[in-house]
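Contributing: when you submit paired examples, paste them exactly as shown. First protein:
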Amino acid sequence: MTNTAFLEACAAAIGAQHVLTDADDAAPYLGDWRRRYQGAARAVLCPADTAEVAAIVKLAREHRVALVPQGGNTGLAGGATPDASGQQAVLSLRRLNRVREIDPHNNTITAEAGVILADVQTRALEAGRLFPLSLASEGSCTIGGNLSTNAGGTGVLRYGNTRELCLGLEVVTPEGEIWDGLRGLRKDNTGYDLRDLFIGAEGTLGVITAAVMKLHPQPAARVTALAGLGSAYAALDFLALAQRHAGPLLTGFELMSDFCMQLVGRHFPQMRYPFQTRHAQVVLLELSDNESEEHARTLFERLMQTALEEGLVEDAVVAESLAQSQAFWDLREHISLAQSQEGLNVKHDVGVPISRIGQFIEETDAEIAREVPGARMVTFGHLGDGNLHYNVQAPVGGDPKRFLAENEKTLNRIVYDSVQRHRGTISAEHGLGQLKVDEAAHYKSAVELKLMRAIKAALDPLNLMNPGKVLR
């Protein structure tokens, strides 16, 4: 059947005004967040609800048109960008933007896939609850995208990834059927866990249209601190000490190298570095206490005193106000922006067992220094869950574009080989998309790939759901 027939059928199903074919209208949907990938599409399709999504999927199956599901288009691995053929169609979920229900007694919120993450946080707050998923892109990323990539963020240490915050899903299958799995149950031992198949699948097995997400009580107080340390090894010991002292009250534990802090200071001088001297590593930690701020601050001061006495921490400062706490978090959140200001770099979103982070950094830094003398390491991330953003900046005075062209493949291999030796993962929270699909095939075992391909073939035998992402 012709492309015209497909588009006419889509227009009849969801309204002609929601089938975008004009180049200017479609343009915002065809490139990725980092501007690394630029695709083309037959059209951008914008259904309003689950029934319309199902109708589009059935039409795509009938006309053999591949669909690329897209939420807020904030992904960092090209997972929501169509290829350059112009034969695929983008399926935008932005109009599925209703919060269907908040259940305070069950501590759940049911939200459609296109609801902005910050809006879920706000609606939870209005109900006296906390939705703890927090990302730098929370003002524009969507719940559907968070689920499709199993997003992490700063609260994983206490609350887990998006997968652990989800109780139930509504999904349109590749056949255009609707699976209603919107059950807000903590226990349901009735067979295969279909929910977890779709979370982290990046739209390759079906289209998530709504989800039941866990809520938590709002903490009575949050206390934030920065600590300067001599090494990543000391940071690991400090993490263990903090966990012993604070237990589940410890909600954030972010590691930032000295070079990260230098970059932020260079490009955002208004952001004050709180220490008089520089430290090899800086840790940002936060406690969330359901009792009182006094209780949290007393616990924090006891923790810091012990850490200083044991020589784990060289210096520390505890935020005295919400404004100062936000200033500490701003230092962390501006690292990526400072990198961009500094110039092009080779980015890695890796995960290794927490106990091996110090060794991983030490060994990989040394290997990169031998291979690319002068390369500058931008190392930061969620130490509490083993997720590092391990990025490599060009040498001072070097041409960043030439640096990338000459060294990206070599640096990727060094980093990923080191990750493999340390029993880690090449993608801890950004997904595979099209950026790492070939790398994943290189590092995953034959058995694992065989199982993944069997699942894909069983659910999507025509390969119309986001082809070329996660698996080739």
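Second protein:
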Amino acid sequence: MKFEEMSLSPNILSGLRDVNYTELTELQEQALPAILEGQDAIIKASPGKSKNGCFTIPALAKIDAKENVEGITTLILTPNSAEAQQIEDLVRGLGYHAQIECACIDLDSSKEEQREALAAEPQVVVGNPGPLADTLQELRYIFRHVDYLVIDDLSKIISLNLLQKVQDILKRVLSDHQTLIFTDELTDEIQEFAEDTLNEGIDIGFNDKEKMLLNKPPEVTQNLSHGYIYVPNRMKITTLMAHIENSPKDQCIIFTASKRGTDRLYKILRKRNYKATSLHSKLSDEKRSQRFANFTNGDVQFLLVGDLSATTLNITDVKKVINYDVPKDADEYRYRTNLISDDKSSSIVSLVSKQDRSDINELEKKLGHSPKELDLPEKVKQKLKERKKQKSAQKKKQNGKKKSRPKKKNKKSNEMELPRPSYDKLSGGKAGKNKKDEKSGVINMLKNLFS
């Protein structure tokens, strides 16, 4: 995209040509439209020309569009002298044709130069937090006309222990203003500062996980119908299809836990002549945009979403969301409810299998209210009855087979009779008699006893 395609004044376009800015970078394409509209934002960006252009171009365009400029209207805070001087040079180059003046209050300038810069009241002031805060304190200076404030490289500001200086400066800005924060990383401290400083700010350039940290989950509206269905074992797809058949034909988003889950459901829905498309993390940006557009344009009824957060979907008006797999995180559940229109006919339904029951119980605790248990669809109840009948028939058949088997005969006999000892090893046994046996009265007595 070229700068000529944007609604910039001839003065700013001439300045862009002077500093060899011809085409927008990827970051600038993402950030400039929202910034030019006046939105507060936290933007993930590394130091460099692309980042500096993101905040200087809108600042100068805003100044050039005014008929009368009174006092300092743009304040840019950056942590070190070299960066402050680079930004000053860029502002002077871009703003030359619009006759925009800029002053730099940095660590390399003297206190006298800093006081003179503020007294001159140029339209733009670029400052390092330390010397600027000290000078403002000495002069008891108040910013009454600033309408555009940039906090550059916030992660570096924090690492240099300059955040308190920034907060001291912000207390002296009494006018309503647009605020932009630039950082190359996201930490808890940066997140907390952004929440306190930005007015309904948006985030630009962050990945899905970082967006979930930045965006507070919405409150779950009471108008929304929350329900869940306990799914019989191995009947999840059957339950889903029966529920869909009984539901209105409105557009619906179905969340699964994996790409494999979306692929499986897509085949089943298409086989039953439902129009569906799917999104997952393995898709290219081009394919994801096209499939998403097919859903938002109304070309398909079902959007299947696997392994992606609801924060990645820019939708707020669907009538139904189905959790094919129950989310383990209560915030993700809240984000999914935020996709649904604020309408009494809208609903979110979770399919709860045996292994999901602990998750739904935990969600109930964290959400503060309990989703309503819904009845199984009649078609599923009927299939359950058929399954029970089949099991019962199989059991009877197995029992019948057991009864028809012949009983084993009990070969035991004379159970009360004492076992007969063997005499083979006794003298005079079956092997024959000898003279000693005849003479032995003890042996003869034993033979007579056991015979």
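If you have annotations for the second protein, write them as plain sentences, like these:
The longest strand covers residues 178-183.
Residues 3-214 form a domain with the Rossmann fold fold (CATH 3.40.50.300).
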